[in-house]
Amino acid sequence: MAREIAEQPAALARTLQSLRPQRAALNRLAGDTRAVLFVARGSSDNAAVYGRYLLEVHAGRPSGLAAPSVATHYAAELDLSGVLVVSVSQSGETQEIVETQAWAATRGARTVAVTNDGSSSLANAADLALVTEAGTEVAVPATKSYTAQLAAMAILAGGLSARTDALDADLDRVPDEVERLITARAGVDAAATQLAATNEALVSGRGLTFGTALEAALKLEETCLRPVRGLSYADLRHGPIAVVDADHVALLVTAADGPMVPGMTELAHDLRRRGAAGVVGIGGDAGFGSAVDVAVPGPELSEPIAPLALIVPAQLMVETLARKLGLDPDEPRGLSKVTQTDPSE
């Protein structure tokens, strides 16, 4: 896992270089489509959450997350004409995702596959495949394949938007920012120590960084065997925040700018007032950093592109925490690299 985290700058550079020429084809395929639906599971689903926010905020395209069981178990007869369906799978072989893409095509959708294997079933069946260049990923927890998927989401947004140049400047800086974060490891060990002190944790973010919060929570669960809730801070305030006490550590993630920073900063203050055992913050501005107990610097990237690098300190933190707990971060208990949703598959 540590080696593959370190490979991310090169993987991101390769992926961005490879996929940028696809933006024109994406624009032609999307054409006059009225909406975008993402189909994914696991880490790929968290990448899709980022894609959904980015398409709506940057490209002005109504987007949402599809429920694969609507296709695979209910075989619903939906009219998907005028819909672009984007299926996301690292392996391209998760049967549920392959079947859902095929179903969507029969219902009139145009299809895009995002996968790390250009010869996979998902890529071969799609109208257009965005093949990431992460290279073979050996560790079970997705790291470089996940950030490469985020890069594909940024390319997708550029292809479906008239404001491509608005993303390019920061995209060019992503590999170097990821390299800087990996080399510095600022705050990572202190954050892992804080999280090791208790079994109770929650993770929160909002908007364009919400997918990052969900991915950080998933990594803590699958790699460190911690029961973790990943919540939007809006949902957290609508009731679950009542459980926060001296046994809880909160992990908050936010970009360095954008409309969510003030709310995340106030949430950090609130959690400390409620007596949380600790508040760890990844990213944010100076005010956010002073509001948390352990500040882990994030990337110097604008909010729309920050998620491509913002997850990296969380990956480092999780790998460190797993080893502190005597666990093998490369092969979490009971998991495999390609997951089939239903036991019969």
TrEMBL record:
> Mind telling me which InterPro entries this protein's record contains?
GlmS/AgaS_SIS, GlmS/FrlB_SIS, SIS_dom, SIS_dom_sf
Protein's GO biological process: carbohydrate derivative metabolic process
Keyword Cytoplasm assigned: no
Query: Which PROSITE patterns does this chain map to?
Result: SIS
Domain SIS, by residue range, is 25-166, 191-332
> From which domain of life does this come?
Bacteria
Pfam families in alphabetical order: SIS
The alphabetical list of record keywords is: Aminotransferase, Repeat, Transferase
Output the PANTHER family linked to this UniProt entry. Answer: AMINOTRANSFERASE-RELATED, GLUCOSAMINE--FRUCTOSE-6-PHOSPHATE AMINOTRANSFERASE, ISOMERIZING
Q: What is this protein called?
A: Glutamine--fructose-6-phosphate aminotransferase
Q: Which organism is it from?
A: Phytoactinopolyspora halophila
